[in-house]
Amino acid sequence: MKSGIKQPLLFSFGQYEWNVMPFGLKNAPSEFQKIMNEIFNDYTKFTIVYIDDVLVFSESIDQHFKHLHIFINIVKQNGLA
C-alpha cells in the first residue's frame, strides 16, 4: 500500500514519524476503511469489512475453510497481523 502524508513530530533533538495510524486524527477511520476496502475488494463475495472488523461467510463448512485460508493469506500479505 502507498503511504500518504504523515504527521511528523518535530523536536529540537530530532524528527519522528508514526509507523502506525495514531489516534485522534479526524480522517483516520475513513482512511483506514478505504485501505481495508482496497485490500478486500476482490473478495466481497465472502467478506464484509467494517473498519477493523471482517466478517467471512460461506454456504458450507468446506467452503468456509477455503475462505478462511484465503482471508488469512490476505491478512499476512498486507501486514495486518
From TrEMBL:
Signal peptide positions on this chain: none
Annotated ranges, domain Reverse transcriptase: 14-80
CDD domains: RT_LTR
PANTHER family: RNA-DIRECTED DNA POLYMERASE HOMOLOG, TRANSPOSON TY3-I GAG-POL POLYPROTEIN
Protein name from the UniProt record: Reverse transcriptase domain-containing protein
Record organism: Mucuna pruriens
Origin organism lineage: Eukaryota, Viridiplantae, Streptophyta, Embryophyta, Tracheophyta
